[in-house]
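Quick start: read one record
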Amino acid sequence: IIYHQKTIDIAPDWSAGYVNMIESLLLRDGKTREARRVLESAERNTGREFTVTRIRLDLYDGKYKEALNRAEKASPGVLGSAYERFMTSGRILSLLKDKERSAEYYDSALAVLPLDKRDYMLHSYAALAYAGKGNRDRALAEAKLAIELSELNRMDQSDMKVVQAEALAQVQAGAQVRTV
C-alpha cells in the first residue's frame, strides 16, 4: 500500500496507481470504505470515471441495483466487449435473483460471440455463459472443448481447467454467478 501511495504521489494523473491501491486495500481490509475514498480521489485527480471499479465496489457492498444501473448505463467499450457487457449484467441480475432477465443477457452474450470452432477462448466464454444460464451440459461441453483446443499451450490449458471448474461449480451451486 505504501508503494501504491508513492506511485500516486509521483504520478497523480496516472490511473493504474489508484486501481492498484484500491485492489490492495480490498485485499487487506475486505471492506470498501477506504477503497471508495481512493476512488473519489482517482476520479478527481485523473478526470476520468472508473465505472468498472465502482461496479465492483457496489457488488462487494451488496448494492446490486446500483451496480446493474451503472453496468446498463455504461458507454460502449467501458466494460470491454459486448460479450463482457452482457455477462456483467447477467451476473448482476443473477445476484438480484432475476433469472429471466439474467438468461436474456447470457443469451445475448452467446449471440455476440464470433463463430470460430478453433478458438479455445471463445469456447471458454461460451462455457461461462451457459453456466450462467444453468445449462450444465452445454457449459461442460464447451469447457471440455476449450481445454482440448488449448493443448498446444500448457499454461492456457491449465487456465481452461479453471474455467471448467468454475462453470461446474456455478451450475452445481445454482448460484450461476461470480462477481465481476
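Confidence is low (pLDDT under 50) at residues 176-180.
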